[in-house]
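Dear colleague,

As promised, here are the two records you asked about, laid out in our usual form so they can be pasted straight into your sheet.

NAME FIELD: protein one
SEQUENCE, THEN STRUCTURE:
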Amino acid sequence: MQSVLLILLVISLGAWSATVQPPPVIQTLSASGSNGIGPEFQVTEKQDPASEDAQFWRQVGLKQLSKTIEKAKRAKDSSYQHKAKNIIIFIGDGMGLSTISAGRIYKGQYLKHGHGEEEMLSFDEFPFTGLAKTYNVDKQVPDSAGTATAIFSGVKTDYGAIGMDSTRSTTNASQGRLDSIMDWAQREGKRTGVVTTTRITHATPAATYARIYHRDWECDTEVPQESVGIHADIARQLVENAPGNKLNVVLGGGLSPMGAFNESEVKTVQFEGGTETICKRGDNRNLATEWLQRHANDSKEAKLVYTREQLLQVDVKEVDHLMGLFRNNHITYSIAREEGEPSLQDMTEAAVGVLERGDKSKGYVLLVEGGRIDQGHHQNYARAALHEVYELDLAVQAALKMTDSDETLIIVTADHSHSVTFNGYPERGADILGAANLHKPKDPMVYETITYANGPGYFDHLANETKPANSSNVWRALKMYTKEQIESPTYRHMATLALKDETHGGEDVIVFASGPGSSLVRGVFEQNYLAYVMSYAGCMGPVKSFDESCQRHLSSAGDSKSKSSAAALRLTLLPLLAAWLIVQLL
């Protein structure tokens, strides 16, 4: 019996050791395939990114639009044909589903609305949702440049690329250039604007107006020698080239790349991370004042503001072009807002005020980015990141109050997710930023509900010299942090892999939509499809003529305007006619 067991043990060990080495092929479970296991996928050479160029992704977008409309027709649902005069797209940078869920609870607990779990974000109420696949052409987990280009241009591209497809070149600025929703809108006579809590030259806002090989080229000093004289830096493109120089609203941070560095800027809280550094111009140009001079010559009123007080004093009904630059770098995290900085809600309200012109305009397209959700996560600043979700929620609420839901399409989404986790078994109503298992005293360690797969929080929570004797626990006990430390904006939640900068996450992001055209947002789709939703709903860009719905809409709008004009004329003439008759009778 012992010899049989020994033989079985040897066989088992042999079988186990044979699986230690990486298998030559990858197999998946399936009903068919050799050995009853499934199809084999051979490791292949990396696909040439140039094969997924603009033409490729435009076909993907058109196919998704056709499929969605066809499904609506079969269901006898014609709501997809409703057209939007105005479009506002909110990007919560890095606002993946875990962040939304945690942010919702944070909002409820911050406002003391009960336990927190039952709270709702303003966009939770939107009638249509979908899931967007976020990968870049060359990356499984994306960055903000490639994802923003997909959302605003309808073409997926490489990691780091702004407004250019995968055929981009460092020595040819024309190769791979793309148009964005701002180009499309301006061609239709719509007003346009960009609002962000990051630098105005940062990846997401830049993708609405710039075409450049790499997102880091925000200043002239960042453009590499081989591209100097070929690629103009992002800040220059904002002021010199369309659609940037035609934007009616530009609000955010970024005084430094614009050449308007504020030497006396105050920084009360010292946040860390690569995003806290910023380039300076080397050409001695002040692009902000150049922008003002260009628009001052247009005979329409233009304003350049630097503080919240100046922003609130702007007569939005009279100003045609508004630029606000409020920090050298990004606008400070809202949880530690500096004096003189506007909120995202302030900027959104000002932007809508400048863009909205009623019957005097053909509508507008506006980007509003809550950009510091992402940057908070990168440094494992969970409290700062979740407060930025609340900040975005307030901006969405403001837009909903200021706009007509029958003529304004509002989309809320993220560009990508993060490696943040919402985990453990915390009790109902537990502090979302607190410990997950205080109610389980037998657990080997107390851990937080919000933790990260990687990032600098690893170093902050490593036990080092505080490790108890004869303990296998390498983490510093949570009780060793004071309440003041944990509630600080710069407190980092624990990360289990040591990185100086936490990474993005690769899962799909949720898309919320409300207003005309919102029913096109449904199911799972490639992220670039969102540009086609805005194009079709807004009667602008590549699918304006996809079918006859835009033509019918524009014709009916013209008829309505004619009828309104005729009615107004009658109202004007009737009193005059009555007065004339009275005179004649007398």
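NAME FIELD: protein two
SEQUENCE, THEN STRUCTURE:
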Amino acid sequence: MHPLQRVLRAQRCLRWGPLASVSWLLLRTCRACCNLSSTACPSPETQQEDGVRKDFSSRLAAGPTFQHFLRSASVPQEKLSSPDVEDPPPYLTVDELLGRQRKVYLETYGCQMNVNDTEIAWSILQKSGYLRTSNLQEADVILLVTCSIREKAEQTIWNRLRHLKALKTKRLRSRVPLKIGILGCMAERLKEEILNREKMVDILAGPDAYRDLPRLLAVAESGQQAANVLLSLDETYADVMPVQTSPSATSAFVSIMRGCDNMCSYCIVPFTRGRERSRPVASILEEVRKLSEQGLKEVTLLGQNVNSFRDNSEVQFNNAVSTNLSRGFSTNYKAKQGGLRFAHLLDQVSRIDPEMRIRFTSPHPKDFPDEVLQLIHERDNICKHIHLPAQSGSSRVLEAMRRGYSREAYVELIHHIRESIPGVSLSSDFIAGFCGETEEDHLQTVSLLREVQYNMGFLFAYSMRQKTRAYHRLKDDVPEEVKSRRLEELITVFRKEATKANKTSVGCTQLVLVEGLSKRSATDLCGRNDGNLKVIFPDVEMEDVTNSGLGVRAQPGDYVLVKVRCTVAILAFAVKWELDWIISGE
């Protein structure tokens, strides 16, 4: 082959081949060029060229290898000034990534996952040298952790930004310029629209980009807008220990998985939080142990589809065992196999501290195999409360929603759960006025509320979201006034049936975890029972059963035995109780 052909082939390999072969190909090309001359005694010019080639070859051998292009590779380098700061990008210094005592104000909107995301974001910023403030006026950075599940949730953020714009405009020139950031699902869904519509927004960070917050803020310091809304296939923040936002909290959220693969036609979550991926079991257990050591009395395991948890990080458990679904339920995706499932995790978590309550949310009805129900029944510290989102009582609407079950299968599951876990408390989600919902469909949802008699409920009018299957395939054809009327009818029926369900506990004594003072009265305390119902009871001195004769007042973290006196029928059910006696939380 002619040497020039070899050079051209090397160039093609360099363009498409692996980086590891770069050095070898270049050296081979140099040797090919050397063979162009066939004289036995090289001329002075040839000797000079050989020297240049040798010098080039030696410099090439000392240059970067394939490992230098891997972010996670261990590359010899000088020690950074701060061990908590990652390698800076070429356009920033380590010092610019540090917070330098700037104060951050965080506001959280939406679901429990956003509460946990706030704790993760703050953990990352705290390690970079930022300080936390609860005073909006003294903040140097304001971050809103946002929700996109409904249009009303986003409108709340737009209204809040108008208020913050005035705050930013009035900022004294003598102070550090105020930076405002949008985090979470709204940043992921709207992206450029936020930056273009609200020029005062400095940074955007999607749910999988919180590790990038120090860099985004550093870029914003130069006067530029900065954004990272890339979704990840593996980010779970497993190595980030969330920082509890309330030092007096008695409970904590622990994220065990992120994203959702269900692709229900109405839901924006798969597009704002990405595909399902689960944390390794070991990292979850370590976090729960630390929370137990800190004295917390309740942990809620979190996930968009929490009971579809599947840890594939340990190869020995990636066998061909198929997934057990609830009877009569199906999935919108190919059946998954192997991994450590939710029943295994729930078992391990409940063994860490028998006195720590374990809850989980939000599940999907399809992922309640018998082994999960049996475990809830057997373990005293796993709360006997199950959230079972129905969304509709009409099989036709459920099919349009792509929920993977019929009304009949859902009702059969309800009966099976109540048989497996006597006294279980049930809650649900319902959507009024989904695409194509007829009056007959609506009445079937009303009848489901009457048949099941949920203890708690979350009911909303349908709000179409861009990118969803419903947006592309269905028509939002139910008028807003009809949606509102149907929603009011659902709420009325729900309250009536929930009152009946909760009245069965009147006269019973139940265990309540004290959370703090009631918002309704300065003379009352509030807490939650095993079924997740809010409890209101008087703040009076009583006898501590662990120290006979000692009078004490209940404190957050104490367990109190109370007797039900009456129930109050509201959506977020508050229950009036009669105090009986207290078990110390110390």
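A couple of things worth noting about protein two: The CA atoms of residues 3 and 36 lie 7 Å apart. The longest helix spans residues 480-503.

Best,
R.
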